[in-house]
Design brief:
Elements: E1 4-13, E2 16-26, E3 31-35, H1 42-50, E4 57-62, E5 65-66, E6 75-77, H2 89-99, H3 104-114, H4 133-147, E7 151-155, H5 163-180, E8 183-187, H6 191-197, E9 200-207, E10 212-221, H7 236-249
Parallel strand pairs: 3-8, 3-9, 6-7, 7-8
Antiparallel strand pairs: 1-2, 1-4, 4-5, 9-10
Helix pairs in contact: 2-3, 2-4, 6-7
Bound molecules: adenosine-5'-triphosphate (ATP).
GO molecular function: ATP binding; ATP hydrolysis activity
InterPro entries: AAA+_ATPase, ABC_transporter-like_ATP-bd, ABC_transporter-like_CS, ABC_transporter_ATP-bind, P-loop_NTPase
Pfam family, one: ABC_tran
C-alpha cells in the first residue's frame, strides 16, 4: 500500500481552467472518496493523477515520490468495466501482468490465487458476457489490483449495479481492501456510498464551463472501524457525516 499526495494541481484544456490548485492526501491503507457535481472535473483530476495527462501546475506524489505525468504507476479503473469480451475471465484479469512482461503461465497462476478472495471462484474459463454485473465489476477490480497492488483509482466502480448488489459489493470491497492492504481513491456521486466506504471524503465544487474552476471545498473524515461498517448507515453518526457532506456540496 502507498500514500498519495496531490499538491496544488491545476489543469485545463485550451482556454478553460478546470482544476484550480487541488490538494488532497490519502493515507496508506485508507479509502478516500471524491464527491462533486457532474462536470466539475473529477475525471480530469483522475487523468492527471494517473499520468494520462500532465497538469498545468502542481505535483502528484506516490509514497512521497514525484510521479507527476508518469502513467502506469497506479491502477486506474474506469467506470465501465471494459473486460475484453473474447478473453476468458482468467486471461482478462491476468492481462496487466502479461503486459508488464510476466510469462503468461505465471501471470495466470498469480491471478488464479486471487480468484477466491475476489469472489470469482469457478469463473476462470468463463466469458465476461456469462457473468453478472457484480461479478464483472469484481473481475475488473481484480484486474486493477493486479496492475498495481499499491494504489487504485476507481471511477464510480459500483454505479451501474442495482441497490442489493451494490450493498454486497460495499462490504466485499472493504474486506478486500483490508485483506490486500491496498489504498484507494474512489469517485462517486452517491453520498451514502461515500460515507459507508470512506475513511475520508473530499468534496470538490466548480463549474469550469462557466469560468469557475473546481477546487476542494472541504473534507470529512469518517472514523468508523471497518468491522462496524455493515450497520453504520443505521447510526446517528452516519447521518451527521451525511449532513456535513451535503453542506459542503452546497
Ligand atoms: N478533452 C477535453 N477537452 C476539453 N474540455 C474537456 C475535456 N475533457 C473534459 N473537459 C471539460 O472539463 C470539465 C470537467 O470534465 P470532467 O469529465 O473531468 O468532469 P467530471 O466531474 O468527471 O464529470 P462527470 O461526473 O459527469 O463524469 C467539463 O467542463 C468538460 O467539458
Amino acid at each position: 500500500m502507498a500514500s498519495l499526495d496531490i499538491e496544488d494541481v491545476s489543469q485545463g484544456f485550451g482556454d478553460i481552467k478546470v482544476l484550480d490548485a487541488i490538494n488532497l492526501h490519502v493515507e496508506s491503507g485508507q479509502v478516500a472518496c471524491l464527491l462533486g457535481p457532474s462536470g466539475c472535473g473529477k475525471t480530469t483530476l483522475f487523468h492527471a493523477i494517473a499520468g494520462l495527462s500532465r497538469p498545468w501546475a502542481g505535483r502528484v506524489l506516490l509514497d512521497g515520490h514525484d510521479i507527476t505525468g508518469q502513467s502506469g504507476r497506479l491502477a486506474y479503473m474506469l467506470q465501465k468495466d471494459l473486460l475484453l469480451p473474447h478473453k476468458t475471465i482468467l486471461d482478462n484479469v491476468s492481462l496487466p501482468l502479461v503486459l508488464k512482461g510476466e510469462p503468461r503461465d505465471s501471470a495466470r497462476d498469480k491471478a488464479r490465487e486471487l480468484l477466491g478472495l475476489f469472489g470469482l471462484e469457478g469463473t476462470q474459463d468463463r466469458w465476461p458476457a456469462e457473468l453478472s454485473g457484480g461479478m464483472r465489476q469484481r473481475a475488473a477490480l481484480l484486474r486493477s489490483y493486479l496492475f498495481s497492488r499499491e494504489f487504485m483509482l476507481l471511477d464510480e466502480p459500483f454505479s451501474a449495479l442495482d441497490a442489493f448488489t451494490k450493498a454486497d459489493m460495499h462490504e466485499w470491497f472493504l474486506n478486500v481492501v483490508d485483506t490486500c492492504g491496498t489504498t484507494a481513491l474512489v469517485v462517486t456521486h452517491d453520498i451514502d456510498e461515500a460515507v459507508k466506504l470512506a475513511d475520508i471524503i473530499y468534496v470538490m465544487r466548480g463549474a469550469p464551463q462557466r469560468g469557475e474552476p473546481a477546487h476542494i471545498v472541504g473534507c470529512e473524515p469518517v472514523a468508523c472501524e471497518r468491522s462496524q461498517r455493515a450497520s453504520f448507515s443505521l447510526t446517528p453518526a452516519f447521518l451527521d457525516h451525511k449532513r456535513r457532506v451535503l453542506n459542503l456540496l452546497g
